[in-house]
Amino acid sequence: MIFPCEDTSVTKLEHSDLYLVETSDLLHPIIDDPYIMGKIACASVLSGIYALGVAEISNIRLFLGVSSRMELNDRNIVMPMVIRGFRDSAKAAGTMVRGCQIIGNPWCLIGGTASTVCTHQQELVPPDGATIGDVIVLTKPLGTMLALTVSQWMEQPEKRGRLLLTITEEEAKKAYCRAVDSMVRTNRVAAVLMRKVRP
């Protein structure tokens, strides 16, 4: 059984009625706070499994590409904060980081893999099961990346002036905070609710 997923795989294990669910994700930093960025990366890694209605994660591994362009002192401060944010998010989701791969790289990259085993196919909610008339429930607001971009542009004088014609600085800050709050929140509750309301 293979579901049409972008970054998550479901594999029936050979000798039992068990299914291995695995997902992976990799991000470049999208905000300046390393601790919060670690939390965002973890929530993003877990989202592939939650999207199938599975709320319990057995294992998560952290992947960290440490930028070779960063000064050593900066790396020694920033990278532990990223790792702590990632671990704290995993713990809040009821799992723990059981491994970490760190590589040197010109760019900073944060991500990982997550996996779990389901005891039968009925534990999974296929992503292609929607039909006409179904209600779509958004678990997070749309436009989070736009809110982050607006926040960055507010610091660039040539773009700031044009932005202030359509949005106030206070509105931009509020949108940024709401976007970050939604990105650090996992979809674990949504996964539980998917199973409760599935036909």
From TrEMBL:
Keywords: ATP-binding, Nucleotide-binding. Pfam families: AIRS (PF00586). One of its GO terms (cellular component) is cytoplasm. SUPFAM superfamilies: PurM C-terminal domain-like, PurM N-terminal domain-like. GO terms for biological process: selenocysteine biosynthetic process. Residues 6-104 form the PurM-like N-terminal domain. GO terms for molecular function: ATP binding; selenide, water dikinase activity. Transmembrane segments: none annotated. This is PurM-like N-terminal domain-containing protein. It comes from Odynerus spinipes.
